[in-house]
Amino acid sequence: MIDTIKKTLWATADKLRANMDAAEYKHLVLGLIFLKYISDTFSAKHAELTQRLADPDDEYFYGDAAPEDIAAELEDRDYYLEANVFWVPEAARWEAVRSNAKQTDIGKRIDEALSLIEAENPKLKNILDKRFARAQLPDGKLGELVDLVSTIGFGATASEARDVLGQVYEYFLGMFASAEGKRGGQFYTPRSIVKTLVAILAPHHGKVYDPCCGSGGMFVQSEEFIEAHGGKLGDVAIYGQEANPTTWRLAAMNLAIRGIDFNLGREPADTFTRNQFPDLRADFILANPPFNISDWWHASLTGDARWVYGDPPQGNANYAWLQHMLHHLKSGGRAGIVLANGSMSSSQNNEGQIRAAMVDADVVEVMVALPGQLFFNTQIPACLWFLVKEKRQRRGEVLFIDARKLATMISRVQCELTDAVIERIAVTVAAWRGEAGAGEYADVAGYCRSVPLAEIAEHGHVLTPGRYVRAEAVADDDAGFEAKMQALTEKLGEQMAKGAELDVVIRRKLGGLGYEY
Predict the structure, then answer these.
(1) pLDDT tens across 81-118, in order?
(2) Which end of the chain, N or C, is less packed with Cβ atoms under 10 Å?
(3) Calpha distance 453→462 (Å, rounded)
(4) Three-state DSSP string of 102-159
(5) How confident is the model at residue 188 (pLDDT cuts 50, 70, 90)?
(6) pLDDT tens-digit series, residues 248-284
(7) CA distance 211 to 352
């Protein structure tokens, strides 16, 4: 049922956006869904309190109080705060917005409603995206969008509402990422990749950090994992940083609607130059940093304390991200990072030396090669790095897993890792670590192998799993970047030489026909 609702909502919402860019439109849709949700949960709590205040058998029974006294009691914010329900002023409630949906100034009214909610809820200060008055939608379309969002029913209880909203929100994030193409991946990591990171790290307690948190998907999956394994929402403390202001707000809303406490820093900011948590030492780090970014460097980063294993090249941030995350781990803490495959083998501009230093220091725990076509925004093959600060199990070894052939296609252009595959990978890692109940670990040809550091050194500290598990070659063979580039350059040179030869022949032929050329 919920899947049908999600698809119907998306089809209608996408139709309403007319010629508006998906990157802009997503903030309108998700902002309205957020407003509808917090208004609905407030109204549900208000109705519950009304009933309980009138029930002689309930501890909240208010006796024979006058209607105006009961009305005043219903306005006591403590009732709502203790239930983790945002306080929504009467003028900002959904019915007030919906009743004005056909007014020409509906965008301004929505912005005002969001401002009222921010003023009443310090947690939401500067988080809600008030852009409705300046939205470039054709006349009447914003009102139609309000009517569409009005059809979303969030259930009778707060837990039901949070579950429905979470599913709708996650679905819309994914669909917008797909619609935006390359830019969409900046705020959304496909669910199966996040689930794989979470399943391997098992972040069930302590401080969880994501230094490039996008829309907050890593945190949501972490909380879902904790609840699924009998834990409580408050068992972890969430820390995140995001540079893009609109994505930073998106993350805050994504966490707020689920009742997750979080700290995303004072403001959106660049993780390298304006680190919001310099003293943080996390138990777990989960991250999908942008691949191979070249414009990250700033002169102030020279000699930074984070570059323990070597200065990262100024033209590629991959090894800056890896070292940043190691710096922010506590002793025994673990990190899971998504990076482009080139990070496993590149030797350009000091990257090979940094990787060698990290391997020799025994901070690399597990490497997982992923299938292609997992991402909305890029076909670049990716991998998962798992790092550990002061390894306590399997010292002097790295576990390599090749999952490149384990994907299931979900569309013509995209695939995913199924829950069964994710479980297999997680159990393999748990068994290798020697965790209770995971069974005995054994190498499996073509899939996994535990490799001593000395053997990795013999391979030039290349960390491509296919090289060690003796896998068959697949499309994204483990040849290094330089080898591939050299082959392509040679091929281009040959084709240019042939082109020059053909040019001479053509000139000669044309000259023979009496043409001047």
Answers:
(1) 888 788 999 899 999 999 999 999 999 999 999 999 99
(2) N
(3) 11
(4) CCCCHHHHHHHHHHHHHHHCHHHCCCCCCCCCCCCCCCCHHHHHHHHHCCCCCCCCHH
(5) low
(6) 888 888 788 777 788 999 899 999 999 999 999 999 9
(7) 24
In angstroms, the CA 150 to CA 31 distance is 13
Whole-angstrom distance, CA of residue 245 vs CA of residue 249? 6
Whose tokens are 């460097």? That residue is 297
Q: What's phi and psi for 345, nearest 5 deg?
A: -135, -10
- Distance separating alpha carbons of residues 28 and 48, to the nearest angstrom: 30
Pairwise CA distance, residues 326 & 285, whole Å = 9
Q: Which of 470-475's residues contact partners 24+ apart within 8 Å by CB, and which partners?
A: 470/445, 470/446, 471/402, 471/404, 471/446, 471/447, 472/446, 474/404, 474/405, 475/372, 475/381
* Cβ proximity of 415 and 371 under 8 Å: yes
In this structure, are residues 238 and 286 in contact, taking their beta carbons and an 8 Å threshold?
A: no
Strand, coil or helix: 286? strand
Non-local (6+) Cβ contacts of 344 within 8 A are 367, 383, 462, 463, 464, 478
- Can you say how many angstroms the Cα of residue 507 is from the centroid of all Cα atoms in its chain? 57
- Distance in angstroms (rounded) separating the CA atoms of residues 343 and 337: 11
**Residue 160 contacts residue 25 (beta carbons within 8 Å):** no
DSSP secondary structure code for residue 274 in this structure: S
* Average pLDDT rounded to a whole number, residues 48-52: 88
As a whole number of Å, the CA-based R_g of the chain is 27
* Strand blocks (E) in 213-325: 236-240, 262-263, 282-287
d(CA 344, CA 11): 40
Residue 220 neighbours by CB distance under 10 Å: 24
pTM exceeding the 0.70 threshold for the entire prediction: yes
What is the Cα 151 distance to its own chain's centre?
Answer: 28
Q: How far apart are CA 82 and CA 294, in angstroms?
A: 47
